[in-house]
Design goal:
Blueprint lengths: L2 E4 L15 E4 L7 H13 L6 H20 L9 H12 L11 H20 L10 E5 L18 E5 L15 H8 L4 H13 L3 H5 L17 E3 L8 E3 L3 H24 L20 H14 L7 H21 L5 H9 L4 H13 L8 H8 L1
Antiparallel strand pairs: 1-2, 3-4, 5-6
Helix pairs in contact: 1-2, 2-4, 5-13, 6-8, 6-10, 10-11, 10-12, 11-12
Length: 377
């Protein structure tokens, strides 16, 4: 069966190291050339896809598809819409009763990735036609209009992949301060700090894992100190603003708990990362998956149904409400644009969904940044 691997630091296709490029190998450990060629194009050529996390997502989707091809003895370059529809239906309704169906958003994401691969193959002459077709569909009347709806010439219709399934986007679900207190009540210092960084800055799992000591300000003279983060979703550096009290507690962790871990690893001649902020007991940087698993276990233990990403939603909703209040006395302030910058969103429409949360969820209308900070003290 196919295997999925990722390039190491020694991979230097153009003379410089490129880490994390997905590679698909067949059962004889040979490169699956069309898949690897497209993944290399995505990672090294295509200017819009610079995030290793996106590369991983594409690689995992193509890996799953290639395993299906091999299991059914299909030819990758001669499959049609029927085979891909069967693959989709198998994800919706797994034949094994013990296997859970995948979320519709995950299914659609995989189908879109496979479609991108085949469209690229058709464009480069590897295949004559793609197994995907598209059609125009009317947008739901319940969907809120976009920011540029007044100049939209599409007539309320959108071009979509015919093989994707209907999926209703759920509104983000922020956590109440009381729920956050329950989750962090039994956490050790490091894990609690991770939660504090997430809920007071909106930082993602991968950004938490990528925090570096050298980028943390050592003096907190201002109410909000800027911290540059490089390991972002889109690969573009941005700035977050943790509160001074959080930075003080973080430096206390560095001097005490983290320093003990580093000394133990040095005494054992074990490998450590001298610049990663949050380390495991083995002296290795916490990975994004470890961050998510840590939080999920704590939330489950506290009886709170939540994932780590809920902390980002919580920050966004509370910050938007705070900015809306500030705009009442500072008319030049645009709450949505300010939140877009703080969240690191490339598209304002992504940020705008939090307007709907504030407008529809009466339980969080009075929530603010102060409420969040109080939950962590």
């Amino acid at each position: 069966m196919a295997e999925l691997l990722f390039s190491a630091e020694t991979f230097r296709p153009d003379g410089s190291s490129v880490l994390g490029v997905p590679m698909l190998l067949d059962a004889k450990m040979r490169l699956i050339e069309p898949a690897c060629a497209w993944l290399m194009h995505v990672a090294l050529v295509r200017g819009r896809t610079r995030s290793p996390e996106t590369w991983r997502t594409y690689g995992e989707a193509l890996y799953d598809w290639w395993q299906t091809i091999e299991a059914n003895d299909w030819r990758w370059d001669s499959v049609g819409s029927g085979e891909i529809a069967a693959y989709r239906d198998n994800m919706l309704h797994p034949p094994d009763d013990d296997e859970k169906p995948l979320a519709r958003s995950t299914i659609n994401g995989r189908l879109r990735t496979i479609a991108r691969f085949y469209h690229w193959c058709a464009g480069t002459g590897l295949i004559d036609r793609t197994p995907f077709t598209a059609s125009d569909v009317a947008l739901s009347r319940s969907r809120p209009p976009g920011f540029f709806a007044h100049i939209d010439a599409s007539g309320g219709r959108e071009r979509v992949n015919e093989l994707t399934v209907r999926h209703v986007t759920m509104l983000p679900r922020p956590l109440a301060p009381s729920a956050i207190r329950r989750i962090i009540a039994e956490m050790p210092v490091r894990d609690r700090l991770v939660v504090e960084w997430a809920v007071t800055t909106g930082i993602r799992r991968m950004e938490i894992a990528g925090l570096k000591l050298r980028l943390l300000p050592k003096a907190c003279a201002e109410p909000m100190m800027p911290v540059r983060i490089d390991a972002t979703k889109g690969g573009k550096a941005r700035v977050i603003y943790p509160p001074p009290t959080l930075l003080d507690r973080t430096w206390a962790y560095v001097r005490e708990e983290r320093a003990v871990t580093v000394r133990k690893m040095q005494a054992r001649a074990g490998p450590t990362d001298p610049d990663a902020l949050f380390l495991t007991v083995r002296g290795q940087p916490m990975t994004p998956r470890r961050v998510g698993a840590m939080f999920k276990a704590a939330a489950d233990g506290a009886g709170v149904p939540a994932t780590f990403h809920a902390l980002r939603h919580t920050f966004a909703v509370a910050m938007l409400r705070f900015l809306q209040r500030e705009a009442q006395t500072h008319p030049d302030l645009n709450p949505l644009l300010a939140l877009q910058v703080l969240m690191g969103h490339a598209d304002l429409a992504t940020t705008a969904i939090y307007l709907r949360v504030v407008a529809t969820d009466l339980s969080i209308i009075e929530s603010s940044v102060d409420d969040l900070y109080a939950a962590l003290l």
